[in-house]
Write a structure and sequence with these properties.
This protein is α/β, with parallel strands linked by helices. It is built from 18 helices and 14 strands.
Length: 449
């Protein structure tokens, strides 16, 4: 089989490469000539564990190729996937400009029966709109349109594609459904469920799934606030809740709020879709508000840890990506927290294993460091925003020696409060009791006294 992948962003590149791994011939298309040139050299424009090796492997087999020619990607393809960006507009709705453009161009290049697949996250009704556009552009075209939403987690995308929880196929055409099943046939060995439904249902499934996960995050963050006020421990609450099979343990980790390219965009879009169809999504609207307030409140928590005044103080930040194992900083909590601290006069030093280059596009006046202990040097407070593995086993003794004041704000709860108390740290985490050692143990003997 042969497919064309229109768009080599995160979704298109991962999906195209993994389809090639399934044994399918894949041509990935992008209008960005520089990006295609890099990909042909084996240079990956995004940070995603395991992807570079897979691209190199499949390019060598000849099953994966890259082009700027639409005809090369579309002609002779059994299916053409639209995997272009759908960024949020000013009103929060997904911008379908690139999807519409792709549909028009695909219509002009098709040369036989083709399944046109919307892989991008799009509002309800987009598959029908793509079908209408193609019909208008090429009335004689033989094709069907299918919705096939992606459920890829950044940092684990390759595994998510190869071992998905389910594959959703939204189409009214049995012929198109058969082709889509054939493309995903290698997953049958794992008995991956194939949900075949209407295009509208498929499009709603994507938004509903992400909104529900975002709801779990905002819910547990609200519970963390209650734990802090009532003397509870949110980690123990989460563990007990997660043992209930009706709830599940995933996405019940309290923290600074969700970010990234999916949850913020998709929750906002779902609220707009609901309004447009006369079915307001009140729960999701509240989730969006709770998350926005959550990120802002984290800056106040850091200021309070410094005695309520952070003017002129050095704040060391560990992690700026919205989650580990990615260089993505879109809607990351760090983009809210750091500027708010700077407005109050804080001096920021930061380190992230992968996202500093991206973060520089959004953050100003930050001293970027090469490793965690450089961040800690002379810091009045150290803040963990992203739970990268390399931050989990730092030497508390060395951190204490480097810092001006042994204050650690752990927004991801990766350290044990008892260990922090034994190391003389003033330790603030999320939804757990605050650790306050004696002030003398908390201060580094700068003058040798």
């Amino acid at each position: 089989m042969r497919i064309g992948m229109v768009g080599t962003g995160y979704v298109g590149l991962v999906s195209g490469t993994c389809f090639a791994e399934f044994g399918i011939d894949v041509v990935c298309l992008d209008k960005d000539k520089a990006k295609i040139a890099r990909l042909k050299k084996g240079e990956i424009p995004i940070y995603e564990p395991g992807l570079e090796d897979l691209v190199t492997k499949q390019a060598k087999t000849g099953r994966l190729s890259f082009t700027t020619s639409l005809e090369e990607a579309v002609k002779g393809a059994d299916a053409v996937f639209i995997a272009v960006g759908t960024p949020p507009g000013e009103d929060g709705q997904a911008d379908l400009t690139h999807v519409r453009e792709a549909a028009k161009e695909i219509a002009s290049a098709m040369d036989g029966y083709t399944v046109v697949v919307t892989k991008s996250t799009v509002p309800v009704g987009t598959a029908r709109e793509v079908e209408r556009i193609i019909r208008e552009e090429n009335p004689g075209a033989e094709f069907d349109v299918c919705s096939n939403p992606e459920f890829l987690r950044e940092g684990a995308a390759v595994n998510d594609f190869m071992r998905p929880d389910r594959v959703v196929i939204g189409t009214d055409s049995e012929r198109a459904a058969d082709i889509m099943k054939a493309l995903y046939r290698p997953l049958y060995i794992n008995e991956t469920p194939m949900v075949v439904t209407s295009p509208e249902t498929s499009e709603i499934i994507k938004y509903a799934s992400n909104a529900f996960l975002a709801t779990k995050i905002s819910f547990i963050n609200e519970i963390a606030n209650l734990c802090e006020q009532a003397g509870g421990n949110v980690q123990e609450v989460s563990k007990a809740m997660g043992l209930d099979g009706r709830i599940g343990a995933k996405f019940l980790h309290a923290g600074p709020g969700y970010g990234g390219s999916c949850f913020p965009k998709d929750t906002m879009a779902l609220t707009q879709i609901g309004q447009g169809h006369g079915a307001p999504q009140n729960i999701v609207e509240t989730v969006v508000w709770v998350n926005e307030e959550r990120q802002k409140s984290m800056a106040l928590r850091i200021i309070e840890a410094c005695g309520g005044d952070i003017d002129g103080k050095r704040v060391g930040v560990l992690g700026v990506a919205f989650k580990p194992n990615t260089d993505d900083v879109r809607e990351a909590p760090s983009l809210q927290i750091i500027p708010l601290l700077q407005e109050e006069g804080a001096k920021i030093a930061a380190y992230d294993p992968a996202a500093m280059e991206e973060a520089e596009k959004y953050l100003e006046n930050v001293k970027w460091c090469q490793e965690p202990y450089e961040v800690a040097k002379d810091a009045d407070v150290l803040v963990i925003i992203t739970e990268w593995n390399e931050f989990r086993a730092l030497s508390l003794e060395k951190l204490g020696e480097m810092m001006k004041t042994k204050t650690l704000v752990d927004l991801r709860n990766i350290y044990n409060p008892d260990d922090m108390m034994g190391s003389g740290f003033h330790y603030i985490s999320i939804g757990r009791p605050e650790v306050k050692p004696e002030s003398k143990a908390n201060l580094r003997a700068v003058s040798g006294n």
